[in-house]
Amino acid sequence: MAIAKVLGVETEFGIAGGPDLDPIVASSIIVNAYAQQGRTRINWDFEGETPDLDARGLPGLTSFAPVVETHLANTVLTNGARLYVDHAHPEYSSPECRTPLEATLYDTAGEEVLRRALLAANESLEPDQAITLYKNNSDGKGNSYGTHENYLLEREVEFARVIRAMVPHFVSRQIIIGAGKVGAETEDGLETNPAFQISQRAEFFEEVVGLETTLKRPIINTRDEPHSDAERFRRLHVIIGDANLSQVATLVKLGSTALLLAVLEDRGAEVFPSPPRHPVRALRLFSLDTTLLVAAECEDDRQRTAWDFQDQLWHLADHYVEQRGGDAVGPPEQVRAIVDQWREMLDGVRDDRGAIADRVDWVAKMRVVNGYQERYDLAAGDARLRAIDLQYHDLRAERSLAQRVGLRQLFSPEQVREAVHNPPTSTRAYFRGQCVARYPDQIVAANWDSVVFDLGQGPLQRVPMMDPLRGTAELTSDLLETCPTADDLLEALDR
Would you call 86 a catalytic residue per the annotation? Predict the structure, then answer.
């Protein structure tokens, strides 16, 4: 049986401005401003970080693990999330969530966290040093930054089967969850000179499988760091995908991928469509093809468009839900909603884009770009069109075009505010977030799988959390309510 697809999203935000236009300084100001505003200065615990472990075994000589930057601003939030500086960008890593809908809520809460951080930071800066943040994936100068997803898998699933099953999805899902992009930035991308691409990230990927995340980016990342019991679990770290402003797109991105991983665990890789013979080439071709008519040759000698792949994968997931349910992904009504939205968006991008412009980012953005271009009779490469592209992703509500195009909202402002401060109740994030809120002066550090306490005497005490589905509200809320101090909590845990 497929295991619960505990999942989450990590987003590196684009950043501009700040003192001396230094992105590391500006990012640190953002993180520290929010940490001070939230009255939490709890550090991240780097013990146990293993970015160099490769799911294929020993990495090849050309594989380089991402650098862990332990010296930059880093804090743990009361909602169980992590806010820190990563590669000269502020990054929000959502808490572990039990369902795609919950994960979408906490991704949306991350946008609000960064808005509040931005407001607090700019109040401390001179006007000419003001910082701007963008929820996007490239800076227009050839640099890309990621929106990563994480999914819990059972360890018994061979990684080769993960590759075989998920490549078709990852090269094609951009047609419903791509964020859209004016022009190109990479050397290969500029050769094609596109007016518009479906995906922000596609042109930056160079390999099918690999350990890297910032160089030679792979479609399937092999980082084998489960942040949990490694004997039982894997964490599939997905680095291919765009930052979505559409909440529905985020929901379908997470939900479709989680469902297909459940299919993989229960039915194996053989039921998935044959992958393209040249996945990287297919990924880039699909991003350039706003007609959705370009096909790639597959290993079974068939030709498939991105739409063909997604249609076949949708039928696979829909049949799985009909036959077995989707308990590993979420409650029946939520899973059904994901499958139905996936279908509507897939049919809409081919047959009626106006009907899904309130859910598909690249369609919404392309309509704005094309309208502006026609209104002012601009050439395809005009810099003003790139400015429109960037403004779509601006986090400032008064500047963001994404706020004005009528994207469908899944959550009320009250729900988002609640998620900014409080953790999900359905995973170990609840225990982490509650400890940060209740005992901030007695916690020295925390990470995904432990909290480290300093009681003022004796050695530091680490509370491990190796199972993502323990530490929930159901299992720990009564305990926390009866423990006014960390001393009480640790004594109760010892008992």
Answer: yes
